[in-house]
Amino acid sequence: MKKLGILFSIFMLLTAFTCENEPLEGDFVSEEIDNNDNNNNNASLVGTWALVEFNADITSTTTFDGGEFVLDFSTELVSADYNLVFTETDYTVSGDYELMSTTIVNGELNDSYTDAYTDVFGEGVYSTNGNVMTINGSFLDFEVDGMPAAVDDVDQDADFTLSADGQTLTFFQDEEQLQEDNNLDASTVINSSSVWQKLE
């Protein structure tokens, strides 16, 4: 069990979830921002957004030395006093939130717990191209079995939608990651979303 946890944690660190997804967690820094083309809809994002929903489901299937391990991890928002503030090129995140998480190993419940994240602060820059936002890190930080599920300084793309009235911002991150290395084959499917409400 410890070997599986270590392998999964290493894999998660290398693949930089998302949370976040994670919609996600942490600091986001974009390498380059094209203010003419890529940030054409950033003006509609400017303002303060309160986190109202976050969900992440991760399924990792690992084959190692002839054995197969399947780890399912899910987390959801319990409560939040957590804001995301956009300017046209920068962002900050700050506040507190609580997540409930469950891990299932090979079909059996392994652990279920709630974690509180307090006095969180992050900042960075972002860019958009259509309805895709490029960030570096994640908007939310959380842990899987005591290991960070997000890695700072890694560029990620997330799809986003803005409601017709401009008051609800939703991020989606769905991806599949494959890793093959000698006796280790791993497939990880990540589905995450977060919903933010604009504050007046």
Report on the structure:
The chain is mainly β and 200 residues long. The longest helix is centred in the N-terminal third of the chain and has 14 residues, at 2-15. The protein has one helix at 2-15, and strands spanning 47-64, 67-86, 90-105, 108-125, 127-129, 132-136, 143-144, 147-148, 155-162, 168-181, 184-198.
What is this structure, in a nutshell?
With 200 residues, the chain is mostly beta strands. Helix content is 7%, strand content 60%. The protein has one helix at residues 2-15, and strands at 47-64, 67-86, 90-105, 108-125, 127-129, 132-136, 143-144, 147-148, 155-162, 168-181, 184-198.
Please tag this protein with its features:
single chain, 200 residues, mainly beta, 9-stranded antiparallel beta sheet, two-stranded antiparallel sheet, 1 helix, globular, disordered N terminus
Explain the layout of strands and helices.
Layout: H1 2-15, E1 47-64, E2 67-86, E3 90-105, E4 108-125, E5 127-129, E6 132-136, E7 143-144, E8 147-148, E9 155-162, E10 168-181, E11 184-198
Antiparallel strand pairs: 1-2, 1-11, 2-3, 3-4, 5-6, 6-9, 7-8, 9-10, 10-11
